[in-house]
Design a protein that fits this description.
Length: 307
């Protein structure tokens, strides 16, 4: 085992693969070819004398040896990044927190939390990015972010099965809602009956597989008619406002709904609960992380409507 020849590039590639979950996605995020990523991983595995990634049908994940290397590599990469920040005049690592968030959390909650944090703790510098729950869980494991806002649906399993388990805190738990055009017959009341969702047209997510049904009410006993797909929540809501269909939304998005949209609860079936989780690795957090977590908790309370 000899790490003397391991390059920073190889460490960054390992972190990207661990974070993205596939060689292909890691190559795209780094601007490399897939073969270049494979060569870097092969090089660092030769130096480690062990397999660092478990190859599976649904992608890759760190092996126990890979987690050891990644934990140490994160320290090295963070120190290099901290040096670059100091040289460019940005706040040092003691005041920097890296946050990952779901698109729905970015509409109101994250901006409100960051605005409040600038007032209360202006020395805390936050770097943030958007992602899906699986991608953000991998980023936490890879050491690319310090905190993440994740989503969870029944039966409320952990976001991954890695060890050690992530430290999770429920910020909100609310029932899923429905965004309806104001001119639609379903918008006339104060709620929508689940039986009236049959035969409706839907605006869904643009991902492939089961995720493509994001935006369709769960558990419909018919094949939904998806007439539009969009990744962006605001695009979905504007399509609703234009009368193009219905879409599901977390309650927090009600405040971001444009004119022409009503966000209503759905009754007559099982409540489709959704949790917003604050996640981090299970070690004592640094003080800037504690301050940002407190701001996110306060913002979550502010965006939770009264019952």
């Amino acid at each position: 085992m000899d790490f003397t020849d391991v390059s920073l590039t190889a460490l960054r590639v390992l972190r990207a693969v661990a974070e993205q979950g596939t060689f292909t996605a890691a190559a795209a995020s780094l601007g490399y070819t897939q073969s270049a990523v494979s060569r870097q991983i092969a090089s660092i595995e030769r130096s480690a004398g062990a397999e660092l990634l478990e190859r599976r049908r649904d992608g890759v994940r760190l092996t126990p040896a890979g987690r050891v290397v990644m934990r140490r590599a994160t320290v090295v990469l963070d120190e290099i990044d901290a040096a670059a920040r100091e040289l460019s005049g940005l706040p040092g690592p003691g005041g920097t927190v890296r946050l990952g968030w779901l698109p729905s959390a970015g509409t109101t909650m994250v901006p409100n939390a960051l605005a409040a944090l600038r007032r209360s703790d202006p020395h805390v510098h936050v770097i943030s990015r958007e992602g899906t729950t699986p991608a953000l869980a991998r980023a936490l494991r890879a050491g690319s972010i310090d905190l993440a806002l994740l989503a969870s649906a029944p039966p409320f399993r952990a976001p991954d099965d890695e060890s050690p388990a992530l430290a999770l805190e429920t910020l909100t738990e609310r029932a899923l809602c429905l965004a309806v055009p104001t001119a639609h017959p379903l918008a006339r009341g104060d709620f929508v009956d689940v039986a009236d969702l049959h035969g409706q047209q839907w605006i869904a997510g643009s991902a492939t597989g089961a995720d493509r049904l994001l935006g369709v009410w769960p558990g419909l006993d018919e094949r939904p008619e998806i007439v539009h797909t969009a990744r962006d929540w605001l695009a979905k809501l504007h399509l609703v406002a234009a009368g193009c269909g219905l879409t599901t939304v977390p309650p927090a998005l009600a405040a971001a709904a444009p004119p022409g949209v009503r966000v209503l609860p759905v009754r007559g079936g099982p409540q489709e609960q959704r949790r917003l989780l604050l996640a981090r690795l299970p070690h004592p957090p640094a003080e800037p992380v504690v301050r940002l977590a407190a701001a996110l908790r306060a913002a979550a309370l502010d965006t939770t409507p009264d019952p």
